Amino acid sequence: MAKLDLTLDLCFATLGDPTRRRILQRLARGDASVSELAEPHDMALPSFMGHLKKLEEAGLITSAKQGRTRICTLSPDAFLPAKSWLGEQDEIWEGRLDRLDDYVTNLMNERAK
Amino acid sequence: MAKLDLTLDLCFATLGDPTRRRILQRLARGDASVSELAEPHDMALPSFMGHLKKLEEAGLITSAKQGRTRICTLSPDAFLPAKSWLGEQDEIWEGRLDRLDDYVTNLMNERAK
Question: Which terminus in chain A has less CB density within 10 A, N or C?
Answer without folding.
Answer: C
